Amino acid sequence: MSAAGAVAPDVRTVHVVLPGDVDDTAVPSGGNVYDRRLNQSLAAGGRTVHEIAVTGDWPRPDDAARERLARSLAAVPDGACVLLDGLVACGVPDIVVPQSGRLRLAVLVHLPLADETGLPPEVAAELDSRERETLHGVGAVVATSPWAGRRLVQHHELPPSRVHVVPPGTDAAPLAPGTDGSSHLLCVASVTPRKGQDVLIEALADLADLPWSCELVGPLDRDGAYTELMRELLAATGLTGRVRLTGPLTGQDLAGAYAAADLLVLPSRAETFGMVVTEALMRGIPVLASDVGGVPDALGQAPDGSLPGILVPPGDRAALAAGLRRWFAEDALRRRLRTSARDRRDTLRGWEETSRRMDAVLRKMVREGS
Known about the structure:
The chain is α/β, with parallel strands linked by helices. It has helices at about 5, 30-45, 65-75, 85-90, 95, 120-135, 145-155, 195-205, 225-235, 250-260, 275-280, 295-300, 315-330, 330-345, 350-370, and strands spanning about 15-20, 50-55, 80-85, 105-110, 140-145, 165, 185-190, 215, 245, 265, 285-290, 310. The chain has 15 helices and twelve strands. Helix 12 (about 295-300) links the parallel strand 11 and strand 12 (about 310). Helix 8 packs parallel to helix 9 and helix 8 (about 195-205) packs across helix 13 (about 315-330).
């Protein structure tokens, strides 16, 4: 009998393993926000939550980071329920999987490792293989959208019964007054190739004859190469004065950016959900986004079946420009999208629903592993 089998499972306590920068609000990300708000909501619902933040260059850590993770997991009591952020867990199956004999392990996949844009093919293949080994070796896998759940099942050949969908919640927010109803565009996303700000700038260059302004809000890339590309594109297209790179915003500063927005634009090349889509819809802001990954799940429909936004192919400058031109040119379209966005906000669920679903997943995993 394993150690886990010999210990009565604790269904009230969960140990959550996170990247070490999860509380760094200076560099916000959707994954970090999800982790933080989930933990808060689980605790508010009566769970005892022990956070274990492990610093390292995940998902490809050095030896010191690997040792920190191994020590952290070894210190968790036998039979405990552990929820691991996939950024930490999926690249190190040799550390995570051996613990599955004594711990109840679930992995939360925010973004499949190989989906990060710009990885060399050999690196993507290695990470993909490691992720598959990790996910096959744990008790439960959690995806953040129905699309992501289906993809994990199909791509990694996982049993559907072990893959669960727990979408992020959305905090209540007031309706955004906007600027003039059309001209102020907002893109909230880390400034990285995966988020596609280069495609947005190129599309906006095709619309230089129209009156608009655009704010790019989000953490700048670590090495600065993509940010420099953005600045070069802005200079080359003559848009430096019309597109503003603000860096990351949080709290009231971020709320102010949403309040001034007439349209949210998310030109991602890959996206498992797109939390900024629901954040915008909660404020009644229509969305123009890439039709990729879990974005359609996030966009959803208003109760009458209408879409609160426009979806265009990812990485397609001409399609994005055409969608924007329609937005600026068609008054009836803007009115219809604003109405749908305001109706859609009434169907969005809060973080208490996210924690309720996650709690059910963890309890099921503990029961089945007993």
